[in-house]
Design a protein that fits this description.
Blueprint lengths: L6 H13 L7 H13 L1
Helix pairs in contact: 1-2
Protein name: OTU domain-containing protein
Organism: Nymphaea colorata (pocket water lily)
Pfam family, one: OTU
Length: 40
C-alpha cells in the first residue's frame, strides 16, 4: 500500500475486502474506495 496520503484509508479498504471474503482490490479500486471513505 503506497504512502500517498490515502494509505490509512487504502489499508481499511483492503482489509474490508479481505474480511468480507473478496479478493484484495487492485490499486485503482483501492484508491476509489479510499477516497469514498475519506469523503465521509
Amino acid at each position: 500500500i503506497p504512502g500517498d496520503g490515502r494509505c490509512l484509508f487504502r489499508s481499511v479498504a483492503h482489509g474490508a475486502c479481505l474480511v468480507s471474503g473478496k479478493l484484495p482490490p487492485n490499486e485503482n479500486l483501492q484508491q476509489e474506495l479510499a477516497d469514498e471513505l475519506r469523503a465521509r
